[in-house]
Specification:
alpha/beta; Rossmann fold; five-stranded parallel sheet; 19 helices; 17% strand
Length: 434
């Protein structure tokens, strides 16, 4: 598997290089030189396969001879050892539940696969791998659990102070061992900028072996394609095939993976990128002008991203042709008030408690279905509702089952370093604090 930079299509690196470097020095993102097509026989019979079998097929076709097939199967079986069920709410409305992994968020797919890929390629006695990750909520918890105790790795998680939920913060700050948390006095965009600056700093890279666990890392993107194919398989068993996916979108890695699956042959009628008021992409699709803005804090905090990194990958998939992109992707934004109303509407209609990110995806799907009533819609539920207890009225809160791993978090001490947004502070921390 060869990859190029979105800023330089003449660049060619192998998969391990892209995984460990995360981001090319030219500040582009790695993309496959060739996006292979899954054979039609597999697509036609996909309903006969399990999630593990689908994941293995997709990964083996995309990654080709990168990892021996027996080893790849072992990685998948170890990393993707939980389900991603499609739950029917009504005849044309389904929710894809992606919160059944250990950190209770969809990020478990990418983080667990990536950590095992990195561990596979790490050689004994090599320089310690420093994994940097910026999180707006769920990424950090998934990465922490994915890398906890992995030999020869150190993980540094940056999160915006006061802008993640209590449970999300506990998932970041109570691990110890090789997991370190930094509470940045700023926004997610500030955290993400610090990580990107670290990768571009030659002096820092000469001292440390840096890599990223954010969705800018190609090994995070690949496993997220698995659940789109698996959702299609589940619905195909029920005779549903004209699918629309509505995806909560912040840094646009999740929907980017869906579009990669689409390019590999996943039959999808439409993708909807559902955002909160951080509406850089909806504005771009409406006006043709791509203008980032400072992120705004909302109830759907994992989507509080003003400069979504993965948008360059999506544009690259469509050769920067906005008109071609708009045939497949539309995008809508929702305020906090609309998010709360959607949470209430889902509960009153289906007796289903949805997290704020999930509710935004549902609202965008319903808006689409009002104009296209013939389609089967799937909205992605990206996090367990228990992570956002302050959002829900008491009646709804009482319906939420609290997983055992959440109950255990409260007894653990918080371990985090507070930091300003200056790169100098972050650089000093990385070079002197361990």
């Amino acid at each position: 598997m060869k990859l190029y930079s979105t800023n330089n299509h003449n660049l060619s690196v192998d998969f391990p290089t892209a995984v460990f470097n995360s981001m090319p020095l030219d500040k582009g993102l790695y993309m496959p030189v060739n996006i292979p097509q899954l054979d039609q026989e597999f697509i036609d019979n996909i309903d006969k396969f399990t999630l593990s079998q689908i994941a293995f097929k997709v990964a083996s076709v995309l990654m080709k001879d990168t990892i021996p097939l027996e080893d790849l199967q072992g990685i998948i079986d170890d990393a993707i050892n939980f389900e991603a069920p499609v739950v029917e709410l009504d005849e044309e409305t389904y929710v894809l539940e992606l919160f059944h992994g250990p950190s209770l968020a969809f990020k478990d797919f990418g983080a667990r696969f990536m950590s095992r890929i990195m561990a596979y390629f790490l050689k004994e006695n090599e320089k310690t791998l420093d994994v940097l990750v910026a999180t707006s909520g769920d990424t950090g918890g998934a990465v922490a659990l994915g890398f906890l105790g992995v030999p020869n790795t150190r993980v540094t998680i940056l999160y915006p102070k006061g802008k993640v939920s209590e449970i999300q913060e506990l998932q970041l700050c109570t691990n110890g061992q090789n997991i370190h948390a930094i509470e940045v006095d700023g926004t997610f965009d500030d955290c993400q900028a610090l990580v990107k600056q670290a990768f571009a700093d030659e002096e820092l890279n000469a001292k440390l072996r840096l890599t990223s666990a954010n969705s800018i890392n190609i090994s995070r993107l690949i496993p997220q394609t698995f659940y789109y194919f698996n959702a299609y398989a589940q619905l195909k068993r029920q005779g549903k095939e004209a699918l629309v996916f509505s995806v909560p979108s912040g840094n646009f890695g999740n929907i980017g993976a869906g579009l990669l699956a689409y390019k590999m042959g996943l039959p999808v009628k439409q993708f909807i990128a559902a955002t909160n008021v951080n509406d850089t992409v909806p504005r771009f699709l409406n006006t043709g002008v791509y203008e980032t803005r400072p992120s705004v804090q909302t109830y759907a905090n994992a989507m509080d991203v003003g400069a979504p990194s993965n948008w360059v990958r999506i544009m690259d998939l469509f050769k920067n042709d906005q008109s071609a992109l708009k045939q497949v992707v539309q995008s809508d934004s929702y305020t906090d008030e609309q998010t709360l109303q959607a949470i209430k509407d889902i509960y009153n209609t289906y007796d289903y408690v949805a997290c704020p990110h999930t509710a935004i995806a549902w609202a965008a799907l319903k808006a689409y279905q009002r104009e296209h009533p013939e389609v089967t819609g799937v909205f992605l539920s990206t996090a367990h509702a228990c992570k956002f207890p302050d959002i829900f009225p008491e009646e709804m809160k009482a319906k939420i089952e609290i997983p055992e791993q959440v109950k255990d978090l409260a007894a653990k001490p918080k371990q985090a370093t507070t930091m300003d947004t200056s790169f100098e502070s972050f650089k000093e921390y990385l070079t002197t604090s361990y």
